[in-house]
Specification:
Layout (H helix, E strand, L loop, with lengths): L4 E7 L4 E7 L7 E10 L6 E7 L4 E4 L8 E9 L4 E3 L13 E5 L2 E25 L8 E17 L3 H12 L4 E4 L2
Antiparallel strand pairs: 1-2, 2-5, 3-4, 3-6, 6-7, 8-9, 8-11, 9-10
Amino acid sequence: PAKPQIFVMSNERRGSIEINIINGAGEVELKENEVFRRKHGEEEWIKIAAGLGENARYDDCAVVSEEEYEYKARAIGVSLGYQDSDVSGIAKVKIRHTQLANTADFTQYIELIYNPKRTRNFSFEEELVHFAGRKKPVVERGEQEDANMMLSFIVRDHEDLEKLIDLIKQRETILLRDG
């Protein structure tokens, strides 16, 4: 296949990086495109997408806020030969608010605004034990520890509230992202 071109653009609202692959006409028919990502300054490439069609678009929603990334595309021909694109320019995003997304479909997400009300609880497994010959009980602690934190968020409007309820009702694994 022909050497692909790759273009990246940060989507600050979504907290993702949009990747566009342009495939030219080559001597061998294109089978698929793959996308690889690495942190800027590192050597190791990680495959983040495969099975993409010709002139594909891919949204990388698994990026860390304020981290710099580079991308490359790989065009694989039906003969299983391949061509890699040049390395993209550096791309990064800043996630401004907290996002909850369905891990099976990152397009289903809700943006929440942090409200600085928080409570934190910590407890041990414990029991008051009364012994003969003692006036007051003794506390015996087990190995179990419990810790939880409750955070408060603001949902922008009724539509976002409905999206949040739908996301919860899906009973899927939910990804929490924040800056």
